[in-house]
Amino acid sequence: KRKELRRERTEALSQQTGELEQQLGRIGHDRRALIALRRSLGDSLRQLDDVDPRQRRELGQRLRADLTLVDAQLQAQADQVELAKRKLLAELRRDLAASAPEQRPDRAKQAQQQWKTLGIGDRRRDQQQWIELRELVDPIFLDVEAARAQERAETDARQAQLREIHQRIEVALQDDNASPQSLQQLADACRAELAELAPLERTAEQRSDRLLQQLQTRQEQAEQRQRLASFSALATRAARLDRLEQAWIRGDGLDREALAELIEPALTDATLQSALRQRHDRLLALVGDGDEAQMATVLQALEEQHRLAEALLLECEFHTGIDSPSEARQARMDLQVQKLAQRMSGGAAAGGAAEAARLWAAWFSIGPMEAATRQALAERFNRCRGGLEAQISG
């Protein structure tokens, strides 16, 4: 029975050895398969004690010869891998030395991909060559990462600056007291800063354009408010000047200090300030160094201002479409003919807003006039006032 068992084990080991030898012929340079085969051959060698002593030597020689052959193939495979990797490293060094910095990352990535296709050789030599590869490519990838980090930091800084620009505009849009000058300065500064950040992403560019458009609209509104405030301020100061003129005409003397205060501080609109200054200077010239003036001179001045006011009111009524008094009908018709002739001759006609502003300034530049005259004429002007204001603000 014992002999039978040895015979069976001998036959099994002999068959197993034959199968392993067949695998050896098929494996070629597959290192993992060679290592697995070597392990199997080693296991078979350890089973020799269980076989028939008469066949033990022959099987042992076969197995050892197979192991020698496997070791030779492993060595050849390792040498082949080492040689291929050495060649790759040499080519990589050469290419990196000859490449521009921006080309090196792609070349390093290509070398890494090629490395994977070369397979695994001797572990110790593989490790040494892997270290050589990392020494070549790691600095390149570190530079790439540093550049990306810098790019991210710059992008973050750009985004922060963009948010800050948008916030400044949004704050200005909420400020109802912002002057048109400050809004213009802000718009100019923001446009310059946005130009430095260009090109922007589409959504950021659209939002910037939208905010700048809103800022321009707010600036136009502020200019309109400031302009209307100047026209209103002229009317207010002119009313105070009316009272100073009436007091002087009544013989109560001229309050020169109050008169000086009427032109300071200057109105923001130079044309309106000029109208106020004309009336101020006219009164001072009429009064002279003292508070007394020749009666004939005063009457002549009052009459002249009355005549100017009548002519100006006709223009105001014509411009705003308000009917003139019946006694001024002929003068109104003459004015219409004059305007028509001016247009037909190619003369430039002032725009509605510009003409309304001129008439407004001209009316409040007229004076002095007697109180009753001023009141009567002011009623006619007040009928035109709404139309003039609408055109000025429009």
Question: How is this structure best described in words?
Answer:
By secondary structure, the chain is an all-alpha fold. It has helices spanning 2-27, 31-46, 53-98, 104-117, 123-174, 180-197, 202-249, 256-261, 270-287, 295-320, 329-344, 352-364, 371-393. It has three domains: 2-119; 146-221; 222-393, no CATH class. The termini are far apart. The mean pLDDT is 87.
Write the layout of secondary structure elements.
Elements: H1 2-27, H2 31-46, H3 53-98, H4 104-117, H5 123-174, H6 180-197, H7 202-249, H8 256-261, H9 270-287, H10 295-320, H11 329-344, H12 352-364, H13 371-393
Helix pairs in contact: 1-2, 1-3, 2-3, 3-4, 3-5, 4-5, 5-6, 5-7, 6-7, 7-9, 7-12, 7-13, 9-12, 10-11, 10-12, 10-13, 12-13
Q: How many domains, in number, for the residues?
A: 3
Structural Rg: 52 Å
Biggest sheet descriptor:
none
Q: What is the structural class?
A: mainly alpha
**SSE sequence, one letter per element:** HHHHHHHHHHHHH
Number of strands: 0
Q: Label the overall shape.
A: rod-shaped
> Which regions contain 5 or more consecutive residues with pLDDT less than 50?
none
Overall average pLDDT: 87
Helix content range = over 70%
Q: Kindly estimate the percentage of residues that lie in beta strands according to DSSP.
A: under 5%
Our measurement of the CA-to-CA distance between the termini, rounded to an integer number of angstroms, reads: 124 Å
Total helical elements: 13
